[in-house]
Design goal:
about 475 residues; alpha+beta; Arc Repressor Mutant, subunit A; ten-stranded mixed sheet; elongated
C-alpha cells in the first residue's frame, strides 16, 4: 500500500462551515444556544410559515467581511442572496437562503504551518448562508426525530482551492481556521457542538498527471482526527479501485469511524440540481468602502502575524510560538507582558509553565487571572537582575501574588528576605568555609572528579540559607577549586 501511495498524488479541497456567534439567527430574531430543548428556538419565520419575510442579520455581514479581510480576500460590494432548493425533513422552508453568483468574499489565502515549512492554500470563496435543522436517528428505534433549533443559524462557508495534498495538511488547515475565527471572535470553533464542520472533496491521480479526476465529497466530519482518518481511508479506497481497473464516480459519502470506512450516501448533485435563483424576499446588499475600512480597523492581532514575529524578531522556538498563539486571550496577555520587558524567552517560559499550571489547577481561562501583566514583567526583571532564582519566582513569590493580585513581587521578595546575596566578599567567605570543611573532597576535585562541584554547591547554599545567587556562587567555587 505504501508503494501505491507513492505513485499517486492526493488532491483535497475543503468546505468549512463556521457558525457565527450571534444572539439571533441569520434572517430572523430567534435566539439560539447549543443544548437547548428540542424545537424551543424557533418562530414562524425560521419555520418558513407562509407570509413571513426574512431580514438579514448585520452581525453576520460584518463577520463575513472581517473574516474575508483576515484571509486576504476581495470583498464583493454588490451582493445578492439566493435560494438553494432541496428537500430534507430538517429544512422547513424546502430551500436554504445562501449566496450563489456573488459570494461576499472571493480569492484570498490561508497560510498553514507544516512540520518544516509554511504553505499558502488559496481560497475560492466565502459566502453567507443559513443552517438546516438536525435529524436524530438514534433516540427512537422506529422513527427519525427532527430538532429545528439550528434551522436558520448563520453560517459562513469557506471553500478552498484543491491545493491540499495530504490528510496532515488538511488537519493543519482546519487548525488554522479554528484559531483564526477564535482570534476574530466570530465563532467559538467547537466541532463537538457543530460550530465548525468540514466537508472534504477528495480525488487521487498518478503523480505527474495534471488531469483532475472525479472527486468524492465526504460529509459531516465532526472532529480533527476524523478528518484525517476519513481522508486516508477514502484515498486508500480510490487507489485500490483504480489499481483494480475500476472508476471513481462523483458522489457524496459519509465516514463511519467505527470501521474506518466511507459509505455512499448519494450520487453527487451538480449546481443545476439545486435550481439556484435570486432570493426574492431580500434586496441586494450594497457594501460601501467606509464599512470595510471600519471593520478592518477592528482587526488588531492575527495568529500568523504573531507567530512570525515570535519566531523571527523574538527568536522563540516554533513550539513556543504555536502555544502562545493558540488562542487570542493568551496572545493578548503575552503581548501585554512584553510591553514592560524585553526578555521574551523568560516571559514565554513563565506563560507556558507557571501561569499555565495555575490556570489548569484552578480550571480558569487566562482572561480570568487577576494579576496584571505589568507585575509578571516585574517578576521577570527580578530574575534578570539575579535578585531571585527562577524557583523562588515560581514556587514562592507567584503563589503570594495569586493571593494578593495587586502586590509587587519585589516587595514580596524583600519582605520575606528572598533577595539573593550578590556580595562577592561574603560569598567568598562561604566558599572558603565549605572547601575547608571538605579538604579531601577538594583534592579529589582537583584530581579530576568535577562532579563534586554539586556537593560543594549544596553545602554552600545551606550555609547561605538559599539566598546566594547560584551562578555567582558556582563561578566562585570553580575559580577557587581550580587553583
Amino acid at each position: 500500500m505504501l508503494t501505491l501511495n507513492n505513485q499517486y498524488e492526493t488532491i483535497i479541497g475543503l468546505e468549512v462551515h463556521i457558525q457565527i456567534s450571534t444572539k439571533s439567527k441569520a434572517y430572523c430574531s430567534d435566539g439560539y444556544s447549543f443544548g437547548e430543548s428540542p424545537n424551543s428556538c424557533v418562530s414562524p419565520i425560521s419555520l418558513g410559515h407562509p407570509g413571513t419575510l426574512p431580514m438579514p442579520n448585520n452581525k453576520v455581514i460584518e463577520s463575513a467581511i472581517k473574516l474575508g479581510l483576515a484571509l486576504n480576500c476581495e470583498i464583493t460590494k454588490y451582493n445578492e442572496y439566493a435560494r438553494k432548493n432541496y428537500y430534507y425533513p430538517d429544512l422547513p422552508k424546502g430551500y436554504q437562503i445562501t449566496q450563489d453568483k456573488t459570494p461576499i468574499c472571493t480569492g484570498g489565502y490561508l497560510e498553514i504551518l507544516n512540520d518544516t515549512s509554511s504553505k499558502k492554500i488559496n481560497l475560492t470563496r466565502i459566502h453567507m448562508e443559513e443552517d438546516a435543522g438536525k435529524s436524530i436517528h438514534d433516540l427512537d428505534p422506529f422513527n427519525s426525530l427532527i430538532d429545528l433549533n439550528r434551522a436558520g443559524v448563520p453560517l459562513l462557508e469557506i471553500v478552498s482551492e484543491p491545493e491540499i495534498r495530504s490528510s496532515k495538511e488538511a488537519y493543519n488547515y482546519l487548525q488554522e481556521i479554528r484559531k483564526l475565527v477564535r482570534f476574530l471572535d466570530i465563532c467559538n470553533g467547537n466541532m463537538e457542538e457543530g460550530s465548525l464542520r468540514c466537508d472534504a472533496n477528495i480525488s487521487v491521480r498518478p503523480k505527474g498527471s495534471i488531469e483532475l479526476r472525479n472527486r468524492v465529497e465526504v460529509k459531516n466530519l465532526n472532529s480533527f482526527s476524523n478528518v484525517q482518518k476519513a481522508i486516508d481511508s477514502e484515498v486508500k479506497r480510490q487507489i485500490n479501485t483504480y489499481e483494480n481497473g475500476g472508476n471513481i464516480s462523483q458522489e457524496t459519502r459519509n465516514y463511519n469511524p467505527k470501521n474506518n470506512e466511507t459509505i455512499i450516501l448519494r450520487k453527487k448533485e451538480d449546481a443545476q440540481d439545486y435550481r439556484y435563483f435570486p432570493e426574492p424576499d431580500i434586496q441586494p446588499l450594497i457594501i460601501n468602502s467606509n464599512l470595510i475600512e471600519e471593520i478592518n480597523k477592528t482587526i488588531t492581532v492575527l495568529p500568523n502575524t504573531l507567530y512570525k514575529k515570535y519566531t523571527t524578531k523574538y527568536n522563540l522556538s516554533s513550539y513556543d510560538s504555536k502555544i502562545l498563539t493558540e488562542d487570542r486571550d493568551t496572545a493578548i496577555f503575552f503581548e501585554s507582558i512584553l510591553k514592560y520587558t524585553k526578555n521574551y524567552k523568560t516571559a514565554a517560559n513563565l506563560m507556558m509553565g507557571m501561569i499555565k499550571a495555575y490556570l489548569n489547577e484552578k480550571s480558569i481561562k487566562i482572561n480570568e487571572i487577576e494579576i496584571q501583566p505589568k507585575l509578571i514583567a516585574e517578576l521577570i526583571t527580578l530574575i534578570d537582575e539575579n535578585l531571585i532564582s527562577h524557583i523562588t519566582a515560581t514556587q514562592k513569590i507567584f503563589p503570594k501574588m495569586v493571593k494578593d493580585p495587586n502586590s509587587s513581587p519585589r516587595l514580596i521578595a524583600e519582605k520575606n528576605n528572598w533577595i539573593q546575596e550578590k556580595d562577592d566578599k561574603l560569598l567568598n567567605i562561604i566558599v572558603e568555609k565549605v572547601i575547608n570543611m571538605h579538604p579531601e573532597k577538594a583534592q579529589d576535585y582537583k584530581n579530576g572528579n568535577k562532579n563534586l562541584l554539586g556537593l560543594f554547591m549544596g553545602e554552600a547554599m545551606k550555609i547561605a540559607k538559599g539566598k546566594a545567587n547560584p551562578k555567582i556562587l558556582s563561578d566562585l567555587l570553580r575559580k577557587k577549586l581550580d587553583k
